[in-house]
Fold this sequence. Notes:
- The structure holds 2 protein chains of 2 kinds.
- Chain A is of the alpha/beta class.
- Chain A has 2 domains: 194 residues, D-Maltodextrin-Binding Protein, domain 2; 135 residues, Periplasmic binding protein-like II (D-Maltodextrin-Binding Protein, domain 2).
- Chain A has 16 helices and 15 strands.
- In chain A, strands 2-1-3-10-4-13 form a 6-stranded mixed beta sheet, with helices on both faces.
- In chain A, β6, α7 and β7 form a beta-alpha-beta unit.
- In chain A, α1 crosses α11.
- The radius of gyration of chain A is 20 Å and the shape is globular.
- Chain B is of the alpha/beta class.
- In chain B, 55% of the residues lie in helices and 10% in strands.
- A 5-stranded parallel beta sheet of chain B has the order 2-1-3-4-5, sandwiched between helices.
- The longest helix of chain B has 46 residues.
- The radius of gyration of chain B is 24 Å and the shape is elongated.
Amino acid sequence: MSTTVLNCGYVPLVDSAPLIVAQELRFAADEGIELNLLPQPSWAALRDLLALGHLNVAHMLSPMPTAMSLGLSGPPAQVDALMVLSANGTVIGVSSMMADAMRAKGWHGGFDNPEATAPPMLAALNRPLRVGVPFPFSMHRLLFEYWIRHSGGASDMQIITTPPPLMADAVSSGELDVFCVGEPWGSVAVNAGVGELILPGVAIWAQAPEKVLAARRVWIDDNAASVSGLMRAVSRAARWLDQPENRVLAIEILERSAHLSLPVSAVEHALTGRFATRAGGPPVHVPDFVRFYDRATNFPWRSQAAWIGEQISHLSGIDRSHAIEVAQSTMRPDSYRMHLGPLGVDMPGASAKVEGALAHSTAVASTKGQMILGPDAFFDGKIYDFTPLE
Amino acid sequence: MTCRRWQRTSSVGPTVVASDMKIAVVESDPARAREIIDALTEDGWEDVVVLGDVIGLARKLSALNPDLVLIDLANPSRDALEQISVASDAQSRPVAMFVDHSDDEMTQAAVTAGLSAYVVGALQPERIRPVLKTAIARFKMMSQMRLELEAAKQALADRKTVDRAKGMIMRARGIGEEEAYALLRKTAMSQNRKVIDVAQALLTASDLLS
């Protein structure tokens, strides 16, 4: 079998794991693909190189294909999400000063209660909150703003884009009161003693699509064989990552990997779901902190995209129905079914679901009989039923 | 978001590269920053500020209000600049970006895609002058196109306002179109106002009374 080399951009974060595992454990090679993994210094650089065709595929923040397709971010380009690479995996933290101010307003700590955490956070300071996010169009920002908006919070927050490796420094220098970031950078801030973690992203939305595997629509249409091989390899890597017995080996592979130049033992917290929320504090276990495969995590739900489109319309002011329609068109369940069905990956019956309806894991009809979905609840119990595109 | 605009697009002169432009260089390596400042000074750009510590970059740029920003593509703080472009008018920001390898195809693609400030080559002192000239020229071209587009949109909106005011006068006075327009013009001239302002005032008054 001849080998096809694909230029694959990623930002060195724990959740780029499916791509690294696909290459390192030779799932890609089995499909005749070599992933030329190209680390990118910023999401903007990765976005532009994908838009200009210098990257074939990329590990991307889930709102980015929609923002790009709406012309809100970088050169306008029709970019689609072939599959979701991971769900959840982010944390929200506050500066040590802010944590003290929140305690003075009755915050009892804890890492699992958005309703009880919002009021003391919003009451802590007598000025607008300064909130660090990794990118203007990131799930981190969408979740944080959703949480605050649905907690009766102020609309005068300052959202400050801060590259994740600089987040801890920005907190310690007093530039940020709050930070929303993917692991390992939350734990880095805690270990440096500059901040405390107050919530995992999963507490706001139990199944938030975090990163996607993205490519330009024209490239997807012209390279069906490569797309198929790539998706099969990444799907197998994701399944391997979600088998509990493989997590220890996964941590070792990622920590030793030249692809992630992360601090030593930084990968562990995210993959075990065990966190110290403050320096020297006892570890807290967060179930489902990050998920790569189970519960149909990789399936590109049109309804998840619609939720993203709705949130983007909130923060950018563009028309809601237009944003939702474009967002839905960037998810490609058609391609997912076509390329991964033959591999035996179980498929849901529909390509859209009611988001937020499942408080617990639930069996639903699938192509192989039944599959387990959820939980996918929002912290405030809201339910989103978007009319499917199909 | 509260980041205010920090561009002063009007200070870029119409034909020559103004040497009094304020340039912000985002570069954390002091030696490299020094080289870039020297090269800029040698070429007549004196108002140069280096931002080495990138914590709070967006806030510092807001305070500085530079005319041009120089940054290397490989710099992770690029995402912080991105925020400014989202917070303010995306295209009114002259940023010269350096791509660390030569690739004609990419430059061409970048230009076609409307990225006015992508420049091929690492951030090297000897390349700065042509690079800045190109970035400023492209930026001015884009600004001009946007200004013209805005002007065209405004003209269209004004014409609609005047047409509505004319129609109102025609109905109220039972006169023809030319006569109605002449009346509008005469009123404007006698009050030393523009026709569009008189038309707008008429529509506002009519909305209030109806």
